[in-house]
Design brief:
The protein is of the alpha+beta class and 71 residues long. It has one domain. The protein is built from one helix and four strands, in the order αββββ. A four-stranded antiparallel sheet has the order 1-2-3-4, covered by helices on one side. Strand 3 and strand 4 form a beta hairpin. The longest helix has 15 residues. The protein is globular, with a radius of gyration of 13 Å. The termini are far apart.
């Protein structure tokens, strides 16, 4: 299950609009085809996983926030 260029574009547009951010970029991962890295202004912030089941596709955004980053 891989991400198409069209999916990446649509997801970047969606995240930019919904999160009211600029500099959102998605990068394909070398070893995993079911997920992409999410970067904001070049900084890694999370991963989007793709799941296709019963003919429907969903995307799961996973962001880990370290306590040190809150200071």
């Amino acid at each position: 299950m891989h991400f198409t260029a069209d999916e990446l574009r649509k997801l970047e547009t969606y995240l930019t609009r919904k999160l009211k951010l600029t500099g959102v970029n998605l990068k394909k991962r070398e070893r995993a085809q079911d997920s992409v890295e999410v970067l904001i202004d070049g900084e890694f912030i999370g991963t989007i996983y793709k799941d296709t089941e019963d003919g429907e596709t969903s995307y799961d955004l996973n962001i880990a926030i370290l306590e040190i980053d809150l200071k």
